[in-house]
Amino acid sequence: MRAGRLKEAGKIHERIGRLKERYPRVARYYGISYTPGDGLVWREDKAKKETAAKLDGSYILKTDRFDLSADEVWRIYSLLTRAEMAFKAMKSPLAERPIFHQLRDRVHTHIFLCILAYHLLVSIEKTLHDKGCYLSWQSVREILSTHQVATIVLPTANGDVIRIRKGATPEPQHKEIYGLLGIGSEIMKPIKTRTPKDL
């Protein structure tokens, strides 16, 4: 291979995965594989592509705003859809829904937190994109969700119980994302507590 080309099979598979994730609408019609002996091999799923072509239609947006161009309407719609997905992604893991606010200040606070969550999401995605990583927030969340915190319980000879709360050892895919975001891979410092046997 020429200088600058990828040589490690793992890196090549990783690059293929990123391309599929970046262009999902195209990737679903092609099978791509790599082996050191055969090199990069791809095949087109013509049957699947023909079926999709028959089902292709039009997407219609209706609005009462006559001062916007078609491009502006689509951009606003895309931003709203993206914001809704961001709020759902940020709030669902916290089990916050449904929330029934009755006081105006609480409604404003809730909206502020949602917007803050959206800005955080966009910041993470942009930081990754600027460094050549085109993972979506959903993919980042799924990958990092496997880097968890565990509690180790150690009984002692005198009956006391020692508990050590610490983060698991990050895997290479975790370290890569942390490195691109410029944060440490140690998600928390170990916390050690001792409970006397009488408690």
| Main sheet: strands, sense, barrel | 3 strands, antiparallel
As a percent range, the share of helical residues equals 40-55%
> What Rg, in angstroms, do the CA atoms define?
24 Å
Report the count of strand segments.
5
**What is the H-and-E element order?**
HHEEHHHHEEHE
> Which sequence of strands runs across the widest sheet?
3-4-5
Quote the average pLDDT.
Answer: 81
Distance between the termini: 66 Å
Percent strand:
15-25%
What's the structural domain tally? 3
| Helix segment tally | 7
Shape: flat
Low-confidence region ranges: none
SS-based class:
alpha+beta
Could you characterize what this model shows?
With 199 residues, the chain is α+β, with helices and mostly antiparallel strands. The protein has three domains: 57 residues, no CATH class; 86 residues, no CATH class; 49 residues, no CATH class. Helix content is 48%, strand content 16%. It is built from seven helices and five strands; from the N terminus they run ααββααααββαβ. The strands form two sheets. It has a three-stranded antiparallel sheet, with no helix packed on it. Strands 1-2 form a two-stranded antiparallel sheet. A hairpin with a 5-residue loop joins strand 3 and strand 4. It is flat.
